[in-house]
Amino acid sequence: MIIGVDGNEANVKQRVGVSVYTLKLLEYFRKKADANIKWRVFLRRPPLSHLPRPNRYFSYQVVSGSRLWLPVFLPLHLNLHRDIDRFFAPAHYSPALLPVPLITTIHDLAFFYYPNEFLGQDLYKLKHWTAASVRRSRRVIAVSKTTKKDLLRFYHLPEDRIRVVYNGFEKNPVPRRTSQDAIPRPPNRYPYLLYVGTLQPRKNIETLIQAFAAIKHLYPHLQLYIVGKKGWQYEKVFSEIERLGIEDRVFVSGFVSDPQLAALYQNATCLVMPSFYEGFGLPVLEAMSFRCPVVSSFAASLPEVGADACLYFDPHSSSDLQEKLTMLMTDSQLRQELVRKGEQHIKQFSWNKCGEETFRVLTS
Prior knowledge:
The chain has 13 helices and 13 strands. With 364 residues, it is an alpha/beta fold. The chain folds into two domains: 2-168 and 350-363, Rossmann fold; 179-348, Rossmann fold (3-Layer(aba) Sandwich), CATH 3.40.50.2000. The strands form two sheets. It has a seven-stranded parallel beta sheet, sandwiched between helices. Strands 10-9-8-11-12-13 form a six-stranded parallel beta sheet, with helices on both faces. It is elongated.
């Protein structure tokens, strides 16, 4: 059997979210590759050096094409050659007119809940291309029960076509920092709250900023550090910081390297996940792995992923978040309990387990 995979999400230099997911699965598939199950990874451009090395059972194939690569050039290639037995799309979108069975992973359906957060062209693709992938798929992998519930609600799929396979997680050794990995924070040792994620409305960062502004007078040196790339309507984050007059206490960074992020987790007072909606919520597990307590909204998949190892709040209430942050900062026993529970909880997640379960779906 030869399984084709769209590997483009992993073939990027800055990897977050779906890119990490795709790369980790490719690493697992390479380990499983043998004479019985071979893998062919299709790419728009030559593989970067961080991708798994090819061998006789795990190979890359570059298919040239324009931005119509997925709807035109890749399916044309697959139909002309017909040398794979099934195809795996790890991120919503899949080739049209496939001559073999399709398996697709759906990470979240946030675009149904927050359509205004997406550019018109992106929203069109998310709605129509995701629907086409789901409709064509022999099996659909959902990364959480929340995503499965949304698939049932919006696409009315037969439940037996959906498989829940949680994202993996592994605490890698903290990479050695170089001079280019200096921590992007003010040169002091003041305590700080940490947010990690894209800057966009459904992430609910404004509620976090409001709660921070309300408690900062109780903790004169407390700071807020926001890490993540700028998303749709990111300007609202900066407007809220300016409106509350806390520019000197809130620091916003873009993408950071793995060593930088590890250091930020290790030294943070806590990670705050204020989102209204998450398909999975990987930063929750990342923080736990670095003994960083987590304060999370009680919304979507976050209680599913965080279980009893988080302190939860109502995402619609900045005062509730304010109360939970105050509890955490004044109760050392609570902090220690969350750290202990977090260390135990992350043992339930691994990329090896995710890879194994995904492998079973692909080969069944």
